[in-house]
Amino acid sequence: MRGSFIALAVATLVVTACGQTPGGSAASNPPSASDMPVRGGTAVIAIWQEPSTLAPVYANQTVSDIVNYGVLEGLAETTNAGEYVPTLAKSVPTVANGGVTVTGDKMDVKWELQSGLKWSDGQPVTSADVKYTWEIYLKDPKVNTRTGFDQIASIDTPNDTTAVVHYKTIYAPYPLNFYQLMPKHLLENEADISKSDYNRKPMGTGPFKITDFKAGDSITLEKNSNYRLAPEKPYLDKVIFRSVPSVEVAMAQLKAGEANAVWNLTAAQSVDLDKITGLVNQVVPGPSVERIEMNTAQNKEFTDPNSVNPVLGDIEMRRALLYATPKQQIIDKLFFGKAQVGSSPVSQGWAAFKGPQEGYDPRKANDTLDKAGWVKGPDGIRAKNGARASLSYTTTTGDATREKVQQVLLDEWKAIGVEVKIQNQPSSVLLSGSCTSKDPRKLGSFDLVQFSSAPGIDPHSTVLPRYHSKNIPTQANCAGQNYTRIKNPEIDAAIDAAGATLDQEKRKQSYATALKLLNDAYVIIWLYDRADIDARQDALKGWEPNAWQRFTWNIESWWLKK
Amino acid sequence: MGRFVLRRLLQALPLLVAISAVSFTILKLTPGGPLAAYEGNPLFTDEDRARLEHAFGLDQPIPLQYLSWLGQFVRGDWGYSFASHQPVLSLIGERLPNTIYLMGTVFVTVLLLAIPIGVVAAVKQYSWFDHLVTGSTFAFLSTPTFWLGLLLIILFGLQLRLLPIGGIDTPGQPFNIFDRLRHLVLPVATIALVQLGSHVRYLRASMLETITQDYMRTARSKGLGERVVVLRHALKNAAIPLVTVVALDVPELFAGALVTEQIFGWPGMGRLFWDAATRFDYPVLMGILTVSSGLIVLANLLADVVYGYLDPRIRFG
Question: What CATH number did the domain enclosing A170 receive?
Fold first, then answer.
């Protein structure tokens, strides 16, 4: 059993390495006879969170995406390598292929739809749907985010398969602007989409359509006979997403054979499943990096970004904390090796920056602090100019993994004479991203804060809001995610340069410059790149990794071995 | 009697308004908010946050937010969930039948078992049956439901594979009453065993008190059969404390069982409340809290009315 799994895993890797066909994942190697896809069957996927809505305009949960990858499609999507490939479009427009024309600081993108595309109700997909999708995002006040859509001035639809999108600015992530298309013919007469059936049963062009949504219980997807790859795909007849109350219950259902797959496990939980024959963990290095951000300004509410943190304002102190952080040890002990040492916020994709952060060396940490004039007091804690090396350390409460990381670092840092006080907060506060909800990162009321947040596929949506000095949140303007309050004109210039061009090579160099400078300022300790771990029965085949999408991204190619 | 009920109902109104005001304030003062859920979206900007805060009315002062909620609530508009944008009433409407299924079964099961067990244990005090009942009810009463539920799952679901470990039906199959009953067994057992513990002990204790009363001897000396003495004379009087306990079970028919529904993935009101609480979904929370407190008030009133029936000496003044 085990041996056959390894063989399959190798086969999967080979298939993946051989590249993907546009918008799908059809294997280019003919699989061996025993691994030939079988048609039919129902796959049950246990999800331990329930999508409150599936409408792409409102959804804000990862789990909504998990379901929607089986249902909704857009013009283009992302491969595991972070490259854009067409889904419903004929090709991804670029400057090189003439699809994108830049005039001054504006740009036009010309999308050509494939011919004969149909919504799951049999109606044709047209360029009017592209325009309608944009319009609804701007019209409805309750939509999740207008990012990208707010950069569009107008859309022309010269014919049914052509949409020309006129951008007001140079908007580099344009290929994914329309990654979930909405059906105009179904929705144009709805006064409020949130109150229509679409809210729970969005209609798309994907391999499946939603036939049942039982709140708190299950969501049923059935084969879409109008799918562009039908009748070849999907292989499965039905997919049922079963809502369960916790990961533990999801795992129990997988073990009991009530579920074929389980979404989202921690490394420790996956180790538990590793021991069971017939179950497979799918570990995909994710683009999110767990990190500790250090506040260079004073630790107080609505801190002045020009103030200086009495301890962390000293770059030597920040440098010493990095030297005293045993990243690899944390990964080995707490993640059983199922994570990568972090070194930058852009760890995946074409702009990946892997310039390493210096490694673990507690002696160097002590030397650095000695040289910088931080003198140990009688209690073993250092001080300089009357400032005691005592820091608060905040992360989300109730997260066992993060709490263990804190315990490790508490001891390590104490050993170099730095005292740390744990001040954890619920994620609904710490990650609220809102000044009124008292997010300490926004207010500046923290010394050290540990968290992770998913990066955008385009690096600009990660780098600009987080490290440009114009994005430091203040009392007057709570916007921005530059939580370390770093102000470096060279970083600003590099980010601005990257945003002013569509030339990928130039952009990559500019981001590398900015991220190198960021690492040289020692304001963030990149702990580890988080891995996405999902589990399934060995009998559920066809799964492939994709760091940028969720594990159901190629569900049309899944099949059940009998 | 009619006037008594009417007066009590009128007294309840300001009480309910006060409860809702306090709940609303506590919810609002809890740090965090419904927009934390958007943090995972790398495209979510601060402009998006400001727009949504405005769309949900979160940018208003708390007293104004409360008044506008109350105004809509009394007119029958319970608002819309921040998370799903569905009307609160329809969210409750789709969960309520499932909870009534679960809690109704528990309610009936517990009553059918508690009364005979409590009566027999009291009448045969210090018998082996009484010792068994007092011992085991004490054990179940002290057992946390989350632990008992998990224990039952491990034993009957994972080890013996006799019963499903969660959900209300087998997914992907048409409704089948036997399938539904199989799914009911473990969650019902989890709640019923704990409730049974308390109900049996209440009834046993008050039965013991009653059967030593003088009027019991009188009844027997009148030549009444033991059956009639115990059931008509003793049980009717001994049931009063039980009525209070049982009446307070009634609101649970609506509110569901928070912990048990969570463990067994039962799509009822308890899970709706739990999910809403973790998402700071104020309109859903307020809807459930207000109805629950209303039902508690009503259940107490019901208990008072039943007292009068059981014991005519209790008058409605």
Answer: 3.90.76.10
What is the pLDDT at residue B316? 63
Mutation for testing the A interface, residue in B49, B98, B179 having most A CBs under 10 Å: B49
Which ipTM value was assigned to this complex?
0.81
Residue of B nearest to A60 (CA): B38
Check whether residue A147 and residue A294 sit in a common domain: no
Whether residue B275 lies within 8 A of chain A, CB to CB, comes out as yes
Burial-class residue A45 by CB neighbours within 10 Å (0-12, 13-18, 19+). buried
- Mean pLDDT for the stretch of residues B253-275: 87
HSE-CB of B256 using CA atoms within 13 angstroms: 29
**Is some CB atom of chain B closer than 8 A to the CB atom of A40?**
no
Residue of A nearest to B36 (CA): A432
Produce one character per residue of A353-369: b if its CB has 16 or more CB atoms within 10 Å, e if not: beeebeebbbebbbebb
Domain with A159, as residue range(s), is 39-202+539-560
- Whether the per-residue pLDDT at A10 is higher than 50: the answer is no
A428–B55 CB contact, under 8 Å = no
Residues linked to residue A526 through DSSP beta bridges, in sequence order: A291
Q: At A41, give phi and psi (nearest 5°).
A: 100, 165
Mean pLDDT score, B150-160: 87
Provide the shortest C-alpha distance from residue B232 to chain A (in Å): 45
Domain match, A190 and A327 both: no
Average pLDDT score over residue span A350-374: 91
Least confident of A44-58, A113-127, A517-531, B152-166: B152-166
Distance from CA of A172 to the nearest CA of B (A): 13
Q: How far apart are CA A138 and CA A383, in angstroms?
A: 54
Indicate if A80 and A60 belong to the same structural domain: yes
A94 CB near a chain B CB, below 8 Å? no
CATH of the domain at A512: 3.10.105.10
Q: Residues 12 to 71 of B: which have CB under 8 A from any A CB? A: 31-33, 35-49, 51-55, 58
Q: Does B302 touch chain A (CB under 8 A)?
A: no
Nearest chain A residue to B28, by CA: A437
pLDDT in tens, A126-136: 999 999 999 99
Tell whether A194 is within 8 A of chain B (Cβ).
yes
Burial category of B268 from C-beta neighbours within 10 Å (exposed 0-12, middle 13-18, buried 19 and up): buried
Cβ neighbours of B272 in A, within 8 Å: 215-216
Higher pLDDT, B41 or A144: A144
Residue-level pLDDT at A139:
93
With H, G, I as helix, E, B as strand and everything else as coil, classify residue B169.
coil
Q: Best mutation site among B45, B173, B278, B284 for testing chain A: the one with the most A CBs within 10 Å?
A: B45
pTM reported for the whole predicted model? 0.82
Residue A8, pLDDT score: 36
pLDDT number for residue A283:
87
Which pLDDT value is given to residue B279?
A: 86
CB-based contact B58 A436, cutoff 8 Å: yes
pLDDT of residue B317: 54
CB–CB of A288/A547 below 8 Å? no
Let me know: does A440 contact A449? Beta carbons within 8 Å: yes
